[in-house]
Amino acid sequence: MTRPPALVPELVVTDLDASLRFWRDLIGFRIAYDRPEDGFACLDLNGARVMLEQRDPRARQWITGRFERPFGRGINFEIQVPAATPILQRLERAGWDLYMACEEKWYRAGDRETGQRQFLVQDPDGYLLRLAEDLGLRPLA
Predict the structure, then answer these.
(1) Given CA atoms 52, 57, 59, 63 in this order, what sign does their dihedral have?
(2) Predicted model pTM
(3) Multiple choice CATH, 10-57+75-139, 3.40.1010.10, 3.30.70.100, 3.10.180.10, 3.40.50.10750
């Protein structure tokens, strides 16, 4: 077993099956392991990890405020993907709206720029994902 990433967000969701259809079937994550009896799944996409846990008021869950959509206000999860186009095609076929259309964006990183082809989409509970395909590095413009 490979060493897990140093940071793995655990998202509380309202419907694990609906979330899995989005994260697995549309975005392309695979189930690394799960505990269906607990409404839990750990997902992986090329080393990017996220854990999903279905909301259960009787369970020990760390809910710090009102539990209302959209969840995760103020957060977007950037996920590096090998190619944005296949994901965009699956989302379009499913009729899933994008939060922000796909764009090419370059960001200053020290003495150069790093580029990505990126778009934003919300999961069934409103968590915001920024999926980014690496475009490489270039000198500062």
Answers:
(1) positive
(2) 0.92
(3) 3.10.180.10
